[in-house]
Amino acid sequence: MTALLTVEDLWVRFQTRNRLVEAVRGISFSVGRERIGIVGESGSGKSMTGRAILGLVQHPGIVQAKRIDFKGRDLTSLSDRDLRAIRGQHISMIMQDPKYSLNPVIKVGHQIAESYRLHHKSSRTEAKIKTLEMLEEVQIPDPERVFNTYPHELSGGMGQRVMIAMMLIPNPEILIADEPTSALDVTVQKRVLEIMDKLVRDRGMGLIFISHDLNLVSSFCDRILIMYAGRIIETCLAKDLHNTSHPYTRGLLNSLPSLQNPSEKLPILNRDPRWKEEPSVNAIREYSNA
In 138-178, where does DSSP find H-type helix? Predict the structure, then answer.
């Protein structure tokens, strides 16, 4: 599979008052027209990886990489202006909670239309038509009414659909979704994932799906990268997740409650300090064969 995006030796560091914190430590991977899941505990570097790709890590964060290659262009060498042309139009990112991503004083339809006009230089009338079509595509009932609502008037599921519409209306080639369903209940979560899956498949996009939910990622993605302490420690096909061998991945899986095999106490994950330094053989092989 031809890679749309190739990340090589990515580091994200933060200089604090007392020490240098390494949030992402030398990871490498590639993404084609497929669904890649990145999973791990809070603080493992998942979200920071997505933000670093798009140049969204703010000061005092320091991002370094041998290359972040998107279709032959090294994103690390681009100016802020050129990177803004990539961001949104070619690579979009859905943030975790729409309440913090949507402007609370601007109607949602105008925000989506603005995203379209920014990248297509269209008229307001054309942008509104495209926005209403996109709202229909994410299965929002009565798009005309929703177009004229404010973010606080929407439920969590509706707000997340609006965010998906806003990120997909420029027709990007890669979508980075940072835990887009974590704040939703199970039934709404399933519906939002079905909508996202259909849009990604129909458009032939690449998807980076960031989550802490192993079962969700294994059912939704094609390949999975498991992160621990800023490193990718294991990669696998999604269908093989429950057959993985790394003790960290096994520990995460064993910590999940099971209806088939209930237990009074779930096992506690005992961490080995060596996991922080061991490179993933599978990750290196996966990258070199991309």
Answer: 143-147, 156-168
The terminus-to-terminus CA distance of the chain in angstroms comes to 7
- Claim to verify: residue 186 and residue 82 sit in the same structural domain: yes
- The DSSP bridge pattern shows strands 67-70 and 5-15 to be antiparallel
For 236, counting Cβ atoms within 10 Å of its Cβ (0-12 exposed, 13-18 middle, 19+ buried), the class is: buried
Are 84 and 222 within one domain? Answer: yes
Does 82 lie in the same domain as 181? yes
The tens digit of pLDDT for each residue in 227-274 reads 999 999 999 999 999 888 888 888 888 888 777 777 778 778 888 888
pLDDT in tens, 111-131: 999 989 988 888 999 999 999
Give the amino acid at 151. Answer: P
- Domain edge (last residue) among 144, 171, 198: 171
Count structural domains, the chain: 2
Domain, as residue range, for 184: 5-90+172-288
Q: Please, are residues 49 and 221 in contact by the beta-carbon 8 Å criterion?
A: no
Co-location of 135 and 122 in the same domain? yes
Strands 61-64 and 5-15: antiparallel
Quick one: tokens of 84?
């803004």
Q: Enter the DSSP assignment of 128.
A: H
